[in-house]
Amino acid sequence: MLATTAAARSLLRSTSRSTTAVAAGVRTFASIEPYSDYGKSVFTGRVADEYLKKHGSSGDILKDPSWTKSHADTVAKAVLDWAVDRGANTYCHWFQPMAASGVRHGQTGQVQNMMMAFNRTTNDIEFDFDGKNLTKGETDGSSYPNGGLRATHTAGGYLALDTSSPIFLRGDTIFIPSAFVSYYGAALDEKTPLLRSNAALSKHGKRLLKHLGLDIGDQDVISNIGLEQEFFLVPRDQYYRRPDLQMTGRTIIGKDAPRGQEMCDHYMAPPSLSSPALACMQEIQDECWRLGIPLKTRHREVAPNQYEFAPLFGLNTTQVDQNLMVMQIIEEVAVRHGLAALMQEKPFNDVNGSGKHNNWSIGTEDGVMLLHPAKVNKATGNDSAFAVIMSAIIAAVNEHGDLMRMAISSPGNDFRLGACEAPPAIVSTYLGEDITFYLSHFKDGKGEGEYIPKLKTLDLGTHEVLPFEVPAEDRNRTSPFPYGGARFEFRAVGSSQNVSLVNTVLNTIVAEKFAEFADRVDAGENLHDIARETLNEHWRVIFNGNNYDLDMQQELTDRGIWRIDSGVEAIATLTSEKNVNLFQKMKVLTKEECESRQQILHDHYTGTVDMEAKCLVDMLNQHIIPSVKAAGVGPLSDLEAAVPTLKAAIAEIHAAEDSYKAAQLARVLRLETMIDIRAVCDAAEEVVPANLWTLATYKELMFLDQHTASTPETEPFFDE
After folding, report:
1. What proportions of the chain, in percent to the nearest 5, are helix, strand and coil?
2. Cα dist. 38→225, 295, 333 in Å?
3. Are 68 and 152 spatial neighbours (Cβ–Cβ below 8 Å)?
4. pTM score > 0.85 for this model?
5. N or C: less crowded end of the chain, CB within 10 Å?
6. pLDDT of the residue at 25
7. What is the C-alpha separation between 671 and 654, in angstroms, rounded?
């Protein structure tokens, strides 16, 4: 990937020289050499194999998690050699505290230690990094959100290396992805429940596959995900003129600019070479490239100044870890280009917010894709394998839509769900008419054959563009959980989220259904009969229509599909009897862990609103009211009355009897009181002269192409 125009020139010149060297007529081929740095800063594959061979081993030992017991010192020596060769001298166990989105830089925790010992006798420095340093760590867990799982007098936090996600290096530090638990083994992080859900999915997925005709032996059933990361880039000098963006990540007030996304002119438009956005994105890709993060796709999104990156899919734990690093790199690189990156779901009013579409699939380690009809049917030798697996997933969505809604209840999604940019808070699934027709016949006993996806041919009636094939099914962007060919896309996930909880829920609810099917077969029932009965019972959750249509939303509500409009109330479902039993049965979360997470999520919501409300008080007192007074126009009395209203609401929240009640009050403050006050502030902005309005406006924040002052290149991009 090319980080700068200078890098582009360098590659162009080297290519030119190569072409000149063979001008005699010998044809050259494309070279991958300019991209040879890919993955050099991640300890896996060829990199790990090279260094492990120096110590009498090979990269193969990393495939078995037991290396942490049998070969830890060997791996530590190889990691040390690799780190020193790459200019690093520091290590950390890199973990994921709960409730980090929107507030914690990088959403991770770490204590960085030098890989050095200091000899008190000789005063020499020696390397000090062995297997114990690599595989385990201990830290003070007292100041992380814990929901009552620990107290100050039992504050130990313990870290253990996660073998499913590779060690990587950035700057002078190696990062060791790790689980973070209390002294008693309770999960204090996002990663541990995801790993447990992976185990549940594998255990019961293997059982179901065996009943379908495929015994995968010691292999695991794994969950792969691909995460589409949306974000905004705004001018940093204007960002400094918005305390709300600096403190909370979103504009709490702000009059719409004369132009928004009405003309659909930003979506997938050519990146402008006159603004810093493209160079910023190139540098982000370059950094990620070195870390082995395959950011393959970049493009403009719908709203002005909104962009997206999308990587290739991979194992869920690795993809989560990489996505956290991608978000951190986006924020850090943006600064170097005079920009601020906004990861929050709804930074601007009346234009699209940002999501993180979570493309979820399952398969075997050797590549049998369980959601790919042809591949799973062939591997099992069972023409109905795909139908059986789909029936289990459909049942999981219908039964546990409340948990899916809970998992996407990030504070920023309050303003995004159902706003013609994300599905509404009604959890249905889209399959398309083709699959729906097939499964309908299957459930009604009208057919036992294999599902073969149809194709259709488009003929444009031209000579230059020949007829071509497309899938029989269109895309349904309004569905929260559409099937997209070998995967389901959870479209409602928020852009700022750590998606560990999202995928923990998906894995767990599907694992439970796989277990239920396998248990019933073990008890003597016919698997096809189980699948048919399940489809008939849960058919209502399939919806192929327009989820944005209000009449359709009412129809879905009348069907009894899970609909929880309030994120606060969705979070409260985590501790329902049904859901606690589910997580305990699948050995993913204990009752106490469910209770702690619910409290933490409510506290996170309340804390977010608390910061927003206090920020609005400051903006009123320090900017908006003074501007109105200076101008002598605007709703001064209403603005002055807003300050004690906000302070009283904040005080009421602080006095609430518990986390749930505080979150309920915070939601009212945010979605009622603050929206009313915003309208007054925006009315003031509309009449105050621009030279007296001290806050950056939407016009100044959202249009890089129109506001960037471009300086001429000091040298031509192309050689003369």
Report:
1. 50, 15, 40
2. 21, 11, 18
3. no
4. yes
5. C
6. 56
7. 18
